[in-house]
Amino acid sequence: MNFNAIEGRVLRYLERRFVAGGGFGSAMPDEIMKENGLQPDQYTRLIARFESLGILEEVTLDGLISIKGAACNYVADLDHDRSTPPPPTVNIMNIGQVSHSQIQQGTVGSTQTSSHGPQVVHRDVADDVVLSVGASTLLCAAGKTGQIIVCVDSAGLHVQAGGKQFGTSFADPRRKAQVESELDELASNGLITVQGQVRSVTTRGYQWIDA
Prior knowledge:
The protein is of the alpha+beta class. It folds into two domains: 5-81, Orthogonal Bundle (Arc Repressor Mutant, subunit A); 126-210, Arc Repressor Mutant, subunit A (Orthogonal Bundle). Helices cover 42% and strands 16% of the residues. It has helices at residues 5-20, 29-36, 40-52, 70-83, 125-128, 133-142, 173-188, 203-210, and strands at 25-27, 56-58, 65-67, 147-153, 156-161, 164-165, 168-169, 192-195, 198-201. The strands form two sheets. Strands 4, 5, 6, 7, 8 and 9 form a six-stranded antiparallel beta sheet that branches. A three-stranded antiparallel beta sheet has the order 1-3-2. The longest helix has 16 residues, at 5-20. The chain starts with a helix and ends with a helix. The relative contact order is 0.11.
């Protein structure tokens, strides 16, 4: 399993929490972000990946993370990968007769020059869109099924995504305003479309989740 530098750092942090807890570790989102220098969008994508790997699980609506023993196994894999140097990279180009090519015949130590047409640089959608923690958590959950179901009745605002509930009762107007703001945030950035009670994740939304 390949992990980038940030993922590896957070994975080791979670493993230490798990061991310190005697086989039961937990952490809040603010703790994880502060201790590892993460931005909210980095945190959300990382947590979604670790959750899919069985390393952790969100166990409360306020984001409490339960750390599982798989964290120790993945850290062991990381240590093994670091102790095993990769094989050297060798580039071999076998050229026969070439005509009308930018590759020129040369000698040892000579250099090659070439010209290229215009290049198209694809900018990652994650570079353009920075979401709040709540909106990014909602989007990543919606990515599992592709939809967010929104319903309002006498009990309150019901929001369901990926098998999780994100809604609130009318007795908590502050939370209701927050959830509505998160839905607007996703729609205004083109990450979901709105059709009645259903919000569907767009291609741009999936690109943000996968970035």
